[in-house]
């Protein structure tokens, strides 16, 4: 399977998709590790963190409205510049636009059997141990805290036992710079030096997840520079094998990281993951930057997963009352559904939270096993297969945006910032997203995310 990975999009979706289309060999999937800026209309701009002049409408609104369709299946996570109210509607994951699937605050899916996990947001020490206390639409400092990763999700990540092929995060796992060509990185970005030296560059919780889950690949962005590395798990002093790392993992400008002969062996190893994780961060999506990478990965050998099929293009919307068709390529991950079912009642919406239970106790492990059995017997047995396709159930919540007739041409409009739409742009409402409601019902959990939202 051939996939493309991109760095921070920052609204430049047209550029990304034209670059993907220009690749010599077509890809089956595009992965985006945050800062997509899924801004549906000017009303989403107040939820984007950053100064007003920095908030731009970008290209996404046309993919949301249906004026354009993503030409390749796109799986994304959130970063620290996002339409936060919109992403919150889909915090358990869902389609943000046809053919564009958001993994949620934390989530795992399978694309043609390939197991893809993603953790949205960036580390922020002050908010890490809080609940999801922000109200929506977000105001004030909640516009920043809402994209900070939470201990609740790290607690859930450490429950994952089955091997993960690809993990997406926005910020880098701490210490990753020591596993690649640090000198070249520092030559490009000398200001990183103090944080690298003190071990504060990136997310320590993400590093803990990397070391525990040991995915075959880890893709990130956020730092707006291209950097490749290889983490050797279990190596006694993995940070000192610079020669080997440079040879295997360094992604010089234009150099590909595809062709991974160790993959099959590594995947077959006992334990929770692979012997090594290949890390790659890419630059921001701007002309002339190194923002796109094609990677060839072996097709999954997971029993019961369908083989390659042509990409699907979810329909724009589903007529009321019709059961949506399920994607042939994108499936729910059964272990993750079980973890969500077993843990969602521990999610807090308060600032101060009770300590989370120890998930390694016999009692909690029994809870997880029970949830897994429930997923299998209740959700899977009725499908007659081993997989559960994600419904193609994208629907608008906020009204789609059409550029005003007095601003002809997309580019002129897309570049407009929040202030161009007037200081009095009304924030988007909190919507009840039907995808989230359906997900909660399917897994048997309460919808605490947007129960009082306006029906979209
Ligand atoms: Zn960025």
What does the model show?
There is one protein chain. Helices cover 25% and strands 16% of the residues. It has 456 residues and is an alpha/beta fold. The protein has one domain (2-310, 397-421). Helix 14 links the parallel strand 15 (431-432) and strand 16. Helix 11 packs across helix 12. It is globular.
Descriptive labels:
globular, 14 helices, 16 strands, 6-stranded mixed sheet, 456 residues, binds zinc ion, alpha/beta
What is this entry, summarized?
By secondary structure, the protein is of the alpha/beta class.
Spell the H/E element sequence. Answer: EHEHEHEEEEHHEHHHEEHHEEEHHEHEHE
Strand order of the largest sheet: 10-11-9-8-7-6-13-14
Bound molecules: zinc ion
Quaternary state reads single chain
Cα-to-Cα separation, first versus last residue: 36 Å
Percent strand: 15-25%
User: Count the helices. How many?
Assistant: 14
Rg, Å, rounded: 21 Å
Number of domains: 1
Uncertain parts: 236-271, 301-319
| Overall mean confidence score, pLDDT | 85
- Share in helix: 10-25%
Largest sheet: number of strands, sense, barrel closure: 8 strands, mixed
Q: Which structural category do the helix and sheet elements fall into?
A: alpha/beta
